[in-house]
Write a structure and sequence with these properties.
Blueprint (H helix, E strand, L loop, with lengths): L3 H6 L9 E3 L1 H16 L21 H13 L15 E3 L5 E3 H14 L7 H5 L3 H7 L12 H18 L4 H6 L17 H8 L6 E4 L2 E4 L2 H15 L21 H8 L3 E3 L1 H8 L9 H21 L3 H14 L13
Antiparallel strand pairs: 1-6, 2-3, 4-5
Helix pairs in contact: 2-13, 3-10, 11-14
């Protein structure tokens, strides 16, 4: 895996104090996933769920705009106060969605209502009342957390997009030569992820730990991975990401939750208790960082031992995490 960000994690991801990897359980998971691979069940998702994603036959620009805008605000969907409900909407009528699915569907709902939500000019001047309308919840108990921060990020991203890329996310992809990572020195050889974390402040995702600066860049890497998922299922209509196999672990909270449920990640009694009691953990706390490090190490091992890419591994484990009813680590962060 030729990923410069993974290299920042390797010096410390085996030496965490409150998160440990159970090697026996990891091998059981790898064995199970190997069987899934042989049956062709480790898929690269097309991200084509009706009302949540654009239709499978949408155009290139529509798909790029969609994955870029939703990942601009793709973080923290569980509220940090009791009863710790996730953001939820009803769309269409009778269909209830929560978490990231509700966020993505909010964009699709706004578009259907005639709001030009995927245009930089609109997002650059969007008002507080308009943001509240777009992300209106199913009821008062399922509001979108950190909405003020999302509003600020959307406006800032639109301003940067207009200033550097003529208001078009598609230009960012084209000017990166459809590569996730740098393939030379200088702006003309920067990959999509470097452009995102350099030119769009909110996409930066680093932590300090063990004397090292760790680079996770979860939302930037997920953005590229989602784009590629649709491209890989487009029958050649969309350009593929040329270095997709180098995409690193997507360090969030649902994947560690699944790995902990499977016994692959073990927690100290202190961390276990904090998660079970819905304790809010500050950004950059060692518990938060170690949880992400443990996940990254496990997902890297899975990809290496099964010779699969992160798009296949992440989706399989992420789906498990979403189905689990146990709480996840609560961190008020824009990183994931």
């Amino acid at each position: 895996m030729n990923n410069p960000y993974v290299k920042t994690l390797e010096p410390v991801w085996r030496d965490t104090k409150d998160v440990r990897v159970n090697e026996e359980k990891l091998q059981e998971l790898i064995k199970d996933m190997r069987q899934k691979k042989e049956k062709g069940e480790l898929i690269i998702p097309a991200w084509a769920v009706p009302n949540i994603h654009p239709p499978i036959d949408c155009g290139l620009k529509e798909w790029v705009d969609y994955v870029c805008w939703i990942n601009t605000v793709n973080f923290a969907f569980t509220n940090f106060e009791p009863p710790y409900n996730k953001f939820a909407i009803e769309y269409p009528k009778g269909n209830f969605l929560s978490g990231s699915a509700a966020m993505a569907a909010s964009f699709m709902r706004a578009k259907k209502e005639g709001i030009p939500i995927f245009e930089a000019e609109t997002m650059n001047t969007i008002t507080w009342s308009e943001i509240n309308y777009i992300f209106r919840p199913v009821d008062e108990e399922h509001k979108m957390p950190m909405l003020q921060k999302r509003w600020e990020i959307i406006r800032e991203a639109a301003d940067d997009l207009l200033g550097m890329y003529d208001g078009q996310w598609l230009n960012l992809f084209r000017w990166s030569n459809w590569r996730a990572f740098d393939y030379g020195k200088g702006f003309n050889y920067q990959g999509i992820i470097k452009k995102l974390v350099t030119n769009f402040f909110s996409f930066g995702d680093t932590r300090e730990y063990g004397g090292q600066t760790l680079e996770f860049h979860k939302r930037a890497q997920l953005l590229v991975m989602m784009y590629h998922g649709r491209a890989a299922n487009s029958g050649g209509r969309f350009p593929l990401i040329k270095d997709i196999n180098d995409i690193g672990p997507i360090a969030d909270y649902d994947v560690p939750k699944a790995l902990h449920f499977l016994g692959v990640l073990g927690y100290s009694s202190r961390l276990e208790s904090a998660i079970e009691n819905h304790s809010v953990i500050v950004v950059g706390h060692p518990w938060e960082t170690e949880n992400r490090l443990g996940q990254c190490y496990v997902m890297w091992r899975i990809c290496e031992e099964l010779s699969i890419n992160m798009a296949q591994a992440d989706y399989y484990i992420w789906e498990m995490g979403r189905k689990s009813k146990s709480p996840h680590i609560l961190v008020p962060t824009t990183s994931y």
